[in-house]
Amino acid sequence: MSMSTPRTGLIKALRQGHRKACISASPSSTLGRRHSSHGEHFNEPSGLLFGELPRKDGSKRQREDWELLWHVGMGGSIVLALGIFYFRPDTSISTWALEEAKARLEARGDAAKYIPSADSRIQQ
After folding, report:
1. DSSP, residue by residue, 2-31
2. Transmembrane stretches, by residue range (predicted)?
3. How far apart are the first and last CA of the chain?
């Protein structure tokens, strides 16, 4: 007796049971089932922008208390993030290598500034 025989029988039984459950289920019972949605969540369209009635006399709308705070907070955080990004320290490896090379040249006593020789200058 092999080990695969009981497993195969179990798998066949599960498949047949699943088929029977799918065949016996009516469409109304499967369509009405919503997984933890607790019913329909649909707002009927009213034709109003953000649910506000249009003003007929042309007056401006009154701001709510949170709007000015939101605009100042959002704008200020964007300006702060841009400032931090612009003035961030240069941590690239090429900058570090240049500073390290200059420090080693100065420690050796050589000039860190490139001075072209007379032979390398372009003749006019």
Report:
1. -SHHHHHHHHHHHHHHHHHHHHHS-HHHHH
2. 68-87
3. 99
- CA–CA dist 42, 49 (Å, integer): 17
b vs e for 19-34, b when ≥16 Cβ sit within 10 Å of the residue's Cβ?
Answer: eeeeeeeeeeeeeeee
- Alpha-carbon distance 25 to 19, whole Å? 10
pLDDT single digits (tens) 15-74: 776 666 555 555 555 555 556 667 777 778 888 887 788 888 888 888 899 999 999 999
Q: Model pTM greater than 0.85?
A: no
The answer to whether the beta carbons of residues 73 and 79 sit under 8 Å apart is no
CA–CA gap between residue 124 and residue 121 (Å, rounded): 9
Which residue, chain included where needed, has tokens 């006593």?
109
Q: How far apart are CA 11 and CA 6, in angstroms?
A: 9
Which structure tokens are listed for 77?
Answer: 């955080």
